[in-house]
Amino acid sequence: MVEFVFKKCHMSTKKLDFLCDLMALLLVKHHDSPPFTDHKDLYDIIDATQLGDVPWQCFSVKHTEECPEVIPPWMDKEYDFWFRDPSMMAQKILANPTYKDEIDYDEISKDPDTHGSAFVLIILGSDKTTVSVGMGNNEYYLLYASTGNVHNNVFLAIPKTDKKNANDEVFRMFHHQLYHSSLSMILQSLKPLVTKYEVIHCGDGHFRHIIYGIGPYIADYKEQVVLGSDIYELLSPDILHQLIKGAFKDYLVDWVLKYLKLIHGTRWTEEIMSDIDCRVAAVASFSGLQQFPQGHDFKQWTGDNSKVLMKVFISAIEGHVHEDIMHCFHALLEFYYLVRRNVITKDTLNQIEDALTCFHHYCQIFLNLGVISTVSLPYQHSMSHHHIKAVKEPWQWSSKHNTLGQMLMSNQHLDKLAASCVDFGA
Q1: DSSP labels for 111-159?
Q2: Contacts (Cβ under 8 Å, ≥6 apart) of 147
């Protein structure tokens, strides 16, 4: 019942109280009572659950260097960072019996201090998300960490200023320093565990010596620029935004439109795009393939739509574009499906390299025809998106006033429920 009303339906407090009262009326004739008297009773029980409990912590940072006579608002503001201890979260993941058959414990043998210890790679990533527009400051900066199985969400602060100071060198430097110093603080608990093991009770029932390592950092391009001066060798692309929304939607699809206008003119291009839209609408029903019965306006693609439309766009443009453009799309799709595999072997890396080489080769047609002047992909993709469940859904469940605290509690409640379900089923 708890999972149904809180997780699947996320029933409002009023509706939950009504449900409890209704159940009480139905059960009274059986001399019984519902499991919860009201919503407060339900929340108290979830809060008291120790399973999956890693409490939120907070620290604040503000500008401390010399200030000008007229102090801009961003210099006088404190920036809050909410996080959960990454080492404790890693322990919870490793202890989860759900993953007992899915974790490979690679042992470290070269260093005598860590000989026989299992190596656990911590994957990091960050992204800014917007949950609403036109209703004040509703942007959140989410940092997530994972051992490759489950994410631990962290909310970073986003320093803001007016347009006048946006390109100010002092503000930009503070933005960079804030980013780096916050990551250093958040990851502090992992630092000693990179060289000295800790004993962890793992999900398969065994106790192991665990050594952690910081692995790839997945980020959008502009975040990579902020981070790149220190950890450029760890940076990894964001597949959704840099490959799907970036290379596919914001570049290739846009280049096709420019190509059609260059070859056929504006009027005929509109006719062709209407035909392409009809082809998208006519896609037959098939497992895993979304349909668009009314067609689709290419200008309104979201990230999720782009993933779906990638699968049908090649067939939709066939006959309307040059053969080399078709090969260009084929190469990008090949690259996409290869890099999203769960296991990347040496042979896969060779195939990825071949696909990338083909992509750049066939991209030359856009250059040769004057559609574009250069091929420089990781630059213009959209940074605003609305799909992160750790932010979007908890924000929708909130009262929309002082939302962050409510969002943090929703995330913690969901983690506890998930851990309880695993424990009950073990």
Answers
A1: STTTTTEEEEEEEEEEEEEES-SSSS--EEEEEEEESSS-EEEEEE---
A2: 90, 93, 94, 103, 120, 121, 122, 123
| CB neighbour list of residue 359: distance below 8 Å, 6 or more residues apart | 328, 331, 332, 335
With residue 68 as reference, give the H or E element that holds it.
Answer: none
Single out the residue of 68, 8, 5 nearest to residue 41, CA to CA: 5
Identify the bridge partners of residue 153 per DSSP, sorted by sequence position.
144
Which residue blocks in 187-302 are alpha helix, DSSP H?
221-231, 254-281
Tokens of 11: 């029933």
The model's pLDDT over 155-212, given as tens digits with 9 standing for 90+, comes to: 666 677 766 777 788 888 888 888 888 888 988 999 999 888 899 988 888 898 898 8
Q: Which helix (H) or strand (E) covers residue 283, if one does?
A: none
CB atoms inside a 10 Å sphere around CB 271:
11
Look up residue 139 and give its two tokens: 């942007």
Q: How far apart are CA 142 and CA 388, in angstroms?
A: 9
Dist. CA 135–CA 395, nearest whole Å = 12
pLDDT tens by residue, 247-298: 787 788 889 999 999 999 988 988 898 888 888 777 777 666 666 655 555 5
Summarize pLDDT for 41-99 with one digit per residue, the tens: 888 888 888 777 888 888 998 888 888 888 888 898 888 888 889 898 888 888 888 77
At residue 22's C-alpha, the angle toward residues 16 and 23, to 5°, is 90
Give me the amino acid identity at 323: E
Residue where the block lists tokens 């998930």: 418
How far from 175 is each of 6, 75, 164, CA to CA, in Å?
Answer: 37, 11, 16
CA distance 256 to 236: 28
CA distance 359 to 243: 13
Residue 83: helix, strand or coil by DSSP?
A: strand
Distance between CA atoms of residues 339 and 351, nearest Å: 10
Beta bridge partners of 48: none
CB half-sphere exposure, 177, CA atoms < 13 A: 11
